[in-house]
Amino acid sequence: MTTTQTRERRPRVSLFCFRAVAVLTALFAIGQPIFIGSYFAGTFEALGLHSAGAVALQGLGLLLPIAACAVVAMRGRWWFLIWSVALFFLIHVQAILGYTRVLQLHVPVGVLTVGIAVAVAIAAVRRGAGSPREVR
Fold first, then answer.
1. Across the chain, what does the average pLDDT equal?
2. Cα-to-chain-centroid distance, residue 6
3. Contact (CB, 8 A) for 114 and 102
4. Residue range 93-118: average pLDDT?
5. d(CA 124, CA 112)
6. pLDDT 10s digits, 27-49
7. Are the C-beta atoms of 74 and 67 separated by less than 8 Å?
8. Predicted confidence band at 24 (pLDDT cuts at 50, 70, 90)?
C-alpha cells in the first residue's frame, strides 16, 4: 500500500528573503534618528550618514513589497504585502519631506515609519509567519 503525501505550498525561500529585507529595513530605520541625533549633538558628519541611510531605506523600501509579493504568491500572509506597500510610500514621503526641509512633518512621519518598519520586521520573524494562509 502506498500513500501519497501532498506537500503544502509554504513560503520558505520567499519568506527568508522577506525576513532579511524586513529586518534590514527596520535596522536602517532605527539608525536614522540615531544619526540625526549625533548631528544635533555636534558630529556634523552624521548628516551625511543620515542622508545615505535615507537612500538605503528607499532601496530597501522598494525591495520589501517585491519580497512580500513572493510570499503572497507562495500562499503566505497577504497582509505582509499591504504593510510593505504602506511602508514603501511612507519611506518615500519621509525622504521627500526631509530633502525639502519640511521638518514639522518629517519628524512625525519618521516616527511612524520606524514604528511600522519594526512591527513588520517583528511580524516577519515570528514563528507563525511561515504558516500558509487558509484557502476559502
1. 90
2. 33
3. no
4. 96
5. 18
6. 999 999 999 999 999 999 999 99
7. no
8. very high
> Secondary structure of the chain: what % helix, strand, coil (to 5)?
75, 0, 25
How far is residue 99's CA from residue 31's CA, in Å, rounded to a whole number? Answer: 17
| Model pLDDT, residue 40 | 92
Q: Which amino acid is located at 41 in the chain?
A: A
Comparing CA positions, the residue from 22, 126, 112, 117 lying closest to residue 67 is 22
Average pLDDT over residues 83-111: 96
Q: Please state, in angstroms and as integers, the Cα–Cα distance from residue 93 to each residue in 69, 73, 133, following that order.
A: 22, 28, 31
Q: What is the pLDDT of residue 64?
A: 97
Look at residues 70, 75, 49 and name the one whose alpha carbon lies nearest to residue 130: 75
Rounded CA separation 25/15 (Å) = 15
Written as nine digits, the cell of 62 is: 522598494
Residue 69 half-sphere exposure toward CB, CA atoms < 13 A:
6
Dump strand ranges (E) for the chain: none
Burial 84-122, CB ≥16 within 10 A → b, else e: beebbebbeebbebbeeeeeeebeebbeebbebbbebbe
